[in-house]
Design a protein that fits this description.
Protein name: Enkurin
Number of strands: 4
Strand order of the largest sheet: 1-2
Keywords: Cell projection, Cytoplasm, Cytoskeleton
Pfam family, one: Enkurin
Distance between the termini: 58 Å
Subcellular location: Cell projection, Cilium; Cytoplasm, Cytoskeleton
Low-confidence stretches: none
Organism: Alligator mississippiensis
Number of helices: 6
Shape: flat
Mean pLDDT: 82
Largest sheet: 2 strands, antiparallel
Radius of gyration: 51 Å
Helix content: 25-40%
Strand content: under 5%
Length: 257
């Protein structure tokens, strides 16, 4: 009944003027004229199923037999030049072979000296990773540790050194600040007993809030229920953050009362 009464209003009995919706102006592209011109330009010559002006072939230029076959260049015969042969000439009937010529070179000794003093043949290293004997180049297989031959191998990168220096400097500034604050008697650190008491109180508050959150109704259909749920969720997140901060082994300083 309260909901029905709340909708009744004297202003609803007054006649109202009908407000006509004003339609926005239609969108017209700035490139409409150029697009229309290009479409008409490319479309008009082909309205008669083909180009507008095409040269009609002459009936005298009919297709001949073999006209589409590739034509090879004819080899020109050179009657003035003679063919030069690379073969040695045929011995004549009157030629006699040379007999009695002996060579004093010791081929056995020469071959032995060449084998001892010569450089051994270099083979490209390969690796076999299958029982069928498939070979792969060892250099490109990734098994060769090429990275250890770099100039900067084993050296700490510059960005890591810079980051470590920044962290070290920040820690030194932090320690100096708290030492100065302790020296001026403005800050004090929490003892282990006080830390344990605060931690127990936070955990107890978290359990109570979590129990209250579990008791919420399954159907959240009103604004107050939704706001209450969001408030409990934010409170639980804040308690979890505080518990994690208190459990941190670092010293906690608070302003001195």
């Amino acid at each position: 009944m309260t909901q029905v009464c709340a909708q009744e209003n004297l202003y609803n009995l007054l006649p109202r003027l009908e407000e006509k919706a004003v339609r926005p102006p239609r969108y017209i592209s700035t490139f409409r004229s150029s697009v229309k011109y290009e479409a008409q330009k490319n479309k008009a010559p082909w309205k008669t199923i083909g180009p507008e002006k095409v040269e009609v072939p002459s009936p005298k230029n009919f297709l001949l037999k073999g006209s589409r076959e590739p034509k090879l260049l004819q080899r020109q015969k050179d009657h003035g030049s003679k063919k030069i042969s690379t073969l040695p000439p045929v011995p004549q009937k009157t030629d006699h072979p040379i007999i009695g010529v002996q060579v004093k070179k010791n081929f056995i000794r020469t071959n032995a000296v060449d084998a001892v003093m010569g450089k051994p043949k270099t083979y490209q290293p390969v690796c076999v990773d299958r029982r069928l004997g498939d070979k792969y180049l060892l250099e490109t297989s990734g098994l060769v540790p090429k990275f250890i031959k770099k100039k900067d191998y084993g050296i700490t990168p510059k960005y890591i050194i810079k980051r470590n220096e920044e962290v070290k400097k920040a820690q030194e500034d932090y320690n100096a600040y708290f030492k100065e604050a302790l020296r001026e008697k403005t800050m004090e650190w929490i003892s282990d007993e006080e830390r344990e008491n605060v931690l127990q109180d936070l955990k107890k508050a978290w359990e109570e809030t979590h129990h209250e959150f579990q008791c919420l109704s399954l159907e959240i259909d009103t604004l107050p229920k939704r706001m209450h749920k969001e408030r409990l969720e934010s409170h639980l997140k804040q308690l979890e953050h505080d518990i994690k901060l208190i459990e941190n082994p670092h010293c906690i300083y608070i302003p001195k009362k």
